[in-house]
Amino acid sequence: MHTDYVAALDIGGTKIAGALVDGTGGVLVRAQRPTPAKESGERIMGAVEEVFGELMADPLWVGASAVGIGSAGPVDATAGTVSPVNVPGWRGFPLVERVRAVTGGLPVTLVGDGVAIAAAEHWQGAARGHDNALCMVVSTGVGGGLVLGGALHPGPTGNAGHIGHISVDLDGDLCPCGSRGCVERIASGPNIARWAMGAGWQPGPDGDATAAAVAASAAAGHPIATAAFERAAQALAAGIAATATLVEVDLVVIGGGVSKAGEVLFGPLRRSLRDYATLSFVQGLKVAPAMTGTDGGLVGAAAATGLGARGLGARDGDAAVVGG
């Protein structure tokens, strides 16, 4: 039996991952390159081409019927371009057109990486069976995506749900995005670690100064490390409550490296949500850890093309499928 696969691309500041994904969400063939984030746009595209070269060399490639791309944002699905904040070589880069050329004209769907995670979690993960959910990645940055009315909601440009850049501290630190006091500026891994160090926390003998090391200290009862995670949880809770109040989601799914802190993050987050999600229609908001893991971006990029489930693909007027 001939099987259709989707070629999926997950683009971040550190790696460019590619895969062939089947209709059950299975990842069949993989390829990966480091993102040459500080180099030219063409050099970065070269890494994308190498990933596709590896996938296309596999015999299963003949079954590839479409390409789904989840990229660090912002993206512009209408124009088919990407401008990831942490990849300065790409500003308005025509990624959809270039990928279509590399893959021999396959239709390409582009969404932000947070939208891709939402698609993955709704199809295969913790948001399965939920019609209205916010799915988040808390990592080097903070991103998100929305499932509303049972369908992925990428928005016209593929960025809807980008909760990391809701301002939760009106006079807060300037964020690289240009705004102030953004969720990401407080709750991302590097910003948790930055605040902890500034407040007097010090790494152990191994010199590890990451948020993971802060989380380990917090789990051991270190007061500054604990405060750093409580502060991050409060920022997340304020952004989540605002989002839930605006669009009525009943579930928040949180993945990404910082979520691996477990109860160090989820405990204070649930407590803070009680302070911010106070209206009757958001009081029942549930928080769950993501289930799709490191393959979430790839599975979600594939799901955003409509693979595997009716209604998961972009609706009319939402993120464009270019070249279909």
UniProtKB/TrEMBL annotation:
Which segments cross the bilayer?
none
Pfam families recorded: ROK
Highest rank taxon of the organism: Bacteria
State the family named in the UniProt similarity comment for this chain.
Belongs to the ROK (NagC/XylR) family.
In Swiss-Prot or TrEMBL terms, this protein is called ROK family protein
